[in-house]
Write a structure and sequence with these properties.
Pyruvate Kinase, Chain: A, domain 1
Length: about 290
């Protein structure tokens, strides 16, 4: 059994760790509230815009539009959204695993991975399919100040790469926010745009009235829809990160609390045993003197 000093040192250490995890939990809870509000407000708009775009693009000839035209999938870009920091459970690992699964499915020779977040960059930095000079290399900084304007620059570069023929398909891998404890890993196709006849049966078939014309509106609607869709994925990922970290820190705090209870019980047992031994030594010494 460890001596009393060692147990006291360990209790102090675990207690310090518990204070840190408890503080991180509260910080993540505060950040989660803001991030959750942002994604909840953005999600209906993004989904309705995508629905309108899919419906409208299916009713007109968009063969000349580079973002709708389907090409042979020779070069595929996977955009992996992870966080810059850890201590958030399986949040980052789930994205990395899903990305590697897609790499195996499509084949390394046809895949390029663009990491958005330091954890994804660390996971793929030594791989042969990591994005090179034709794509931004500092995307991790987007998480420091996530807003629509900052994300636009990355979205425009992705659109430009697809339009120029650098890639035939772009897929975004990220955690979709459900609640603080549940994040759903998704691999959504950003480009080319999926038309209504390829979407589910629940797609809206509303007959829209267009002004000035359907063709002119679709030209402006497609880029805006892509920007909103990608921004929503970023917001989803941010809210999921804070939810995952809050849950992980909550569990860590509970585990530390249980460990402290066990250590205190062990400490009290060891202290009681030490006191008992001292009493026995005193009694034994007294009997020896009397004898």
């Amino acid at each position: 059994m460890a001596n009393l000093k060692e147990i006291r040192t360990r209790i102090t250490s675990v207690n310090s760790t518990m204070q840190i995890t408890s503080a991180m939990k509260m910080v993540s809870a505060a950040k989660l509230k803001r991030a959750q509000n942002a994604v909840v407000q953005m999600r209906p708009y993004a989904e309705k815009l995508q629905e309108i775009l899919s419906n409208v693009s299916s009713s007109i000839d968009t063969a000349d539009n580079p973002f709708v035209k389907i090409r042979e999938e020779k070069n595929i870009l996977l955009v992996a959204l992870t966080s810059n920091r850890g201590l958030c459970g399986g949040f980052n690992n789930n994205v990395i695993k899903k990305t590697k699964t897609l790499v195996r499915e499509y084949g390394e020779s046809s895949i390029t991975v663009l990491p958005v977040g330091k954890k994804a960059n660390d996971a793929f930095k030594n791989s042969s399919y990591l994005a090179k000079d034709n794509l931004p290399q500092n995307s991790a900084s987007l998480w420091d100040d996530l807003n629509f304007e900052n994300v636009n620059s990355l979205t425009e570069e992705l659109m430009s790469s697809y339009e120029n023929g650098d890639f035939d398909k772009i897929i975004v891998v990220y955690n979709s926010f459900k609640n603080a404890a549940v994040q759903i890993i998704k691999a959504e196709q950003l480009l080319p745009i999926v038309k209504a006849d390829s979407v589910s049966e629940n797609t809206d078939n509303t007959d829209y009235i267009f002004e000035p014309s359907q063709e002119e509106i679709i030209v402006d609607l497609i880029p805006n829809s892509l920007k909103v869709t990608f921004y929503k994925a970023m917001l989803d990922s941010l809210a999921s990160e804070h939810g995952a970290r809050m849950t992980a820190m909550h569990k860590a705090t509970d585990n530390a609390s249980e460990l402290i209870k066990e250590l205190k019980l062990t400490y009290n047992k060891a202290r009681q045993a030490a006191i008992t031994n001292e009493i026995l030594e005193i009694v034994g010494g007294a009997e020896a003197l009397n004898g």
